[in-house]
Amino acid sequence: MQAVQFSEHGDTDVIEYDEFPDPEPADDEVLVDVKAAALNHLDVWTRRGLPGIDLEMPHIPGSDAAGVVTEVGTDVDRFEEGDHVAVSAGVSCGSCEFCRDGEPTMCVDFHILGEHVRGVHAEQAAVPADNLVPVPDHVDWEVAGSASLVFQTAWRMLVTRADLKPGETVLVLGASGGVGHAALQIAKYVGAEVYATASSEEKLEYADELGADEVINYEQEDFDDAIRDITGYRGVDVVVDHIGAATWDKSLASLAKGGRLVTCGATTGPNPETDVNRIFWNQLEVIGSTMGTPGEVDDVLELVWEGEFEPRIRDTLPMSETARAHEMLQDREGFGKVVVRPDSEL
Ligand SMILES: [Zn+2]
């Protein structure tokens, strides 16, 4: 089969689309004929190399994909040939104290397909049945292949971890990115008042279309000042931050007394300065969140398949142009998801 792959870490020129041995499904796995796959910032980090993660080379990247089941391992009874499926990339051990407590995303051995082990940006992928979600036949391949990682992440952040309530105020940073655009839609669905930041008028218009009550161009004004203006110096109940160093202090400064900052990533770096006085005096909560449980994945993807949530597709490229897709992510061009499809499907 043809697969996106790299044999060393580096810039986008390490990415190749080339022959790779056909995968054979183990007893608990399903062979998926991939129709569409999406990129996440994680793919850029993995390609550059992450400290502490030693990959088996060549590595096939990719955590999001959807396709058709072509073969089923002997222990699998949830799927059969011809089913449409989407990948949910979080892998847990099932036996540690956190897994046994019903918290698989806190598993001591938690890992992600495409980040720690070979992923799904290929013509075919052998995927554990536990990492697949059924997709109704009417759902477009681009939608099916691009919703899972960002919508489960944003859903767990807001609904489970931040326990967002109707009528609360939420600030979503980087509302044009994958997690941002999912968080905006989920916060509106819960019944919150949502403020969104982005870096251009075009991206702000898009946030407005998705239902943001106020939009803030962070290139033109400090977003924490804008939040104080909008809320009459009160601040917001929840900030969704996946940006890290560049926004952290302003995120904390945007919170109301007792507010919650929920974070799932740090694309601008993991070591911001923190004003600890602000945290204890205002009695703030800093909440971490990673991926989603199978139950959370089912809940949020059901709403995607029904059309309640829309993963916006920025562009669809052939897999042979995956290097270009990585560039689009790292240069923050446009909004929504970048999708790649096997050249043989186009
Ligand atoms: Zn575990």
UniProtKB/TrEMBL annotation:
InterPro entries: ADH-like_C, ADH-like_N, ER, GroES-like_sf, NAD(P)-bd_dom_sf, Quin_OxRdtase/zeta-crystal_CS, Zinc-ADH_QOR/CCCR. SUPFAM superfamilies: GroES-like, NAD(P)-binding Rossmann-fold domains. The keyword NADP applies. Residues 10-340 form the Enoyl reductase (ER) domain. The keyword NADP applies. Coiled coil: none annotated. One of its GO terms (molecular function) is oxidoreductase activity, acting on the CH-OH group of donors, NAD or NADP as acceptor. It comes from the Archaea. Pfam families: ADH_N, ADH_zinc_N. GO terms for biological process: small molecule metabolic process. Gene3D superfamilies: Medium-chain alcohol dehydrogenases, catalytic domain, NAD(P)-binding Rossmann-like Domain. Keywords: Acetylation, Cytoplasm, NADP, RNA-binding. It is found in: Cytoplasm. GO terms for cellular component: cytoplasm. Homotetramer. This is Alcohol dehydrogenase.
